[in-house]
Amino acid sequence: MNVIYSKHYNINLGPLNYLHPFDGTKFQKIQHQLKNNKGISFIEPKSPASMEVIDEFLSSSMRPRVRSKDEILQALELPGIPLISFSLLDKEILSPMRWAVAGTILGAESALEKSEIYWNLSGGYHHAMQQSMEGFCIYNDIGICYQQLIKSGQLKPEDKILIIDTDAHHGNGNAHTFMENENVTILDVYNAGIYPASNYTRNRVNISVPLNPGTEGQEYLNRYSEALEKLDSDYKIAFVVAGTDPLSCDKLADFA
Prior knowledge:
Elements: E1 2-4, H1 26-34, E2 41-43, H2 51-57, H3 62-65, H4 69-75, H5 86-114, E3 118-120, H6 141-152, E4 161-165, H7 172-177, E5 184-191, H8 199-202, E6 207-211, H9 217-228, E7 237-241
Parallel strand pairs: 1-2, 1-3, 4-5, 4-7, 5-6
Helix pairs in contact: 2-6, 5-6
């Protein structure tokens, strides 16, 4: 198994970590549990994705917004904190997210080159899009990665792409990003009773699996399995957003 991890993924604001339920240091915890498994090969990106690469993806109106302290705090769902500067947010939160984008790009490039599966321990920021950021998602790593693969020639615009999203929240950012791209198939398993509730992005999903709050494991797996049976087999590459929030211990998703 190929696992992509960098110590730079981790988001640690000390006591301020308690202001948000997102565990910013979960990446190193996972890596610690996996590191002695001899069946796992760890690789890491050499550098974070540059702002030049990210700006290529963002709309012109979004470029200044991702450099605004107030806009970032709103997207992170954090209260206004006077003593925190944008430079601190950039160093401690945004830079780790740019490392995650680099990990997604590395995994996709490696998968296309070697026809193997790569798991990136960070990324999956599926609420971000070209024109917006929300839900603790600033940069849409799959959208940025796709754009870079097209630019490098590793993908062609006509190649069929698959996105499987098992995060308990609907991936509105991915749906919006690929709204007009008929070559991208989206399968999304999500809690229909929670954020985000935008029907126009839910309607973009090709294979939609909306589930009720409180859905338990066997029903989740049955519905997911039925959805997988509807997929074709000629995709050039598949991206899987493997969120852990369907688990009953999650504080926000209301699944079981």
